[in-house]
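ok trying this again, last paste got cut off
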Amino acid sequence: MAATVDARGFSCPQPVLMTLQAIKATNPSELVVLVDTDTSKENVVRAAQSQGYAVKEVSEEGEGYRICIERR
């Protein structure tokens, strides 16, 4: 099961920092990040890619987004 970062309710750069912290702490093969703004979605995707992760899926979930990333 993928690790999950729930960054809903936080404004940037907090979702990016939370995502990077989870990547550095556990180096997961797959990570799900929940965000609630377009800006957070775009910034988390860029940050994940900069750490060697590929975006597997971005889907709308409720009033936000579910971003699934995986290590390349």
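PB: full thing came through this time. The chain has a mean pLDDT of 96.
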